Amino acid sequence: MLRHLGTAALCLGLAAAAYAATVVFWRDPATDVYQRWRQHQLSAQLARSFAAERAAAARIEAVVRARSEPAAGLSALQAAARAYRARVELGAPLGRLVVPRLGLDVVVVHGIRWGADLSRAPGHYPETPLPGAGGTAAVAGHRTTFGAPFRHIDRLRPGDTITFVVPYARLVYRVGGHRIVDSHDWSVIAPQGFDALVLTACHPLWSSRQRWVVTGRLVRAELASGAVLEGAALSERGPRRAKSASSAGAPAASSSRAAPRRRL
Questions:
Q1: What is the pLDDT of residue 53?
Q2: Over the stretch 104-140, which tens digit does the pLDDT of each residue have?
Q3: 128 — phi, psi (to 5°)?
Q4: Is residue 119 in some structural domain?
Q5: Can you give the pTM of this predicted structure?
Q6: What is the pLDDT of residue 133?
Q7: Dist CA 242 CA 254 (whole Å)
Q8: How does 149-188 read in b/e, with b if 16+ C-beta sit within 10 Å?
Q9: 67 within some domain
């Protein structure tokens, strides 16, 4: 009897050690399964909402262009982003984030609540504007649990691309660099004078003491209508420059308040 109990205890100990090693050197397999299931649900929800939202974005763009405003393409992009922001609810799927360097293609939700949002997907900071709105859009993600989408965020290098696909546009950002900040430093989401995308995750692994922050700048926007904005067309001071997606070969708030530490 004692021999059997000893064998069972040894097996349980080995299983626990193997699980712990998997969590440390890879990621938590239990929460990984949960996140994959929720991502499947979110993908279906996002697909259903895209058709209606794309039509709304196209209507907004047509209205803006009809006014013959300078930089009409940029104005249309920002107007569509603001309109979508007014409709999207906390916890709802917002868009899709694609990061080739990390092998990442994941749905992003609106919100950064630990259980309700980040357990299912990377989350958009609700304090920040949406991508393409002209400010700094920020997204947080886990590094060790719930799929660990940002586990290797430290591998991103200047020049890498990050694509954020939302109903009103396909937005391509080019990474400019990274920095490590205190977990209570909210200056990372402050306006930077250009359309920026910021990715944040806890640093070091298994600690919420600091944040690893990657910043990218918008370099290309493919609008719902098929128009493409690049270069000077993405600057409010630059001349208007828009071209069709087919001709381009493209596919048809600053705050100093402290935030609670959350392990990502």
A1: 85
A2: 999 999 999 999 999 999 999 999 999 999 999 999 9
A3: -110, 155
A4: yes
A5: 0.79
A6: 96
A7: 31
A8: bbbebbebeeebbbbbbbbbbbbbbebeebeeeebebbeb
A9: yes
CATH number of domain containing 38: 2.40.260.10
Measured distance CA(158)–CA(161) in Å, rounded? 9
DSSP3 helix / strand / coil % (the chain, rounded to 5): 35, 25, 35
Q: How many CB atoms lie within 10 A of CB 231?
A: 11
Q: Which residues of 37-66 are buried (b: 16+ CB within 10 A; e: fewer)?
A: ebbeebbeebeebbeebbebbbebbeebbe
Give every residue of the chain whose pLDDT is below 50, as ranges.
10-26, 237-262
Task: For residue 154, give its domain range.
Answer: 27-248
Domain count for the chain: 1
In a domain, 1, yes or no: no
Residue 237 has a pLDDT of 45
Report the alpha-carbon distance of residue 19 to residue 16 in Å, rounded. 5
pLDDT, tens only, 19-60: 444 444 445 666 888 889 999 999 999 998 888 888 888 888
Task: Give the closest residue to 57 by CA, choosing from 86, 85, 81.
Answer: 81
Q: Residues with Cβ < 8 Å from 48, sequence gap 6 or more?
A: none
Amino acid at 149: P
Chain CA centroid to CA 70, Å = 30
pLDDT of residue 18: 41
Write the DSSP string, 99-153.
Answer: EGGGTEEEEEEE---TTTTTTTS-EE-TTSPPTTSSSEEEEE--SSSTT-TTTTG
pLDDT, residue 60, reads 85
Residue 258 resides in a domain: no
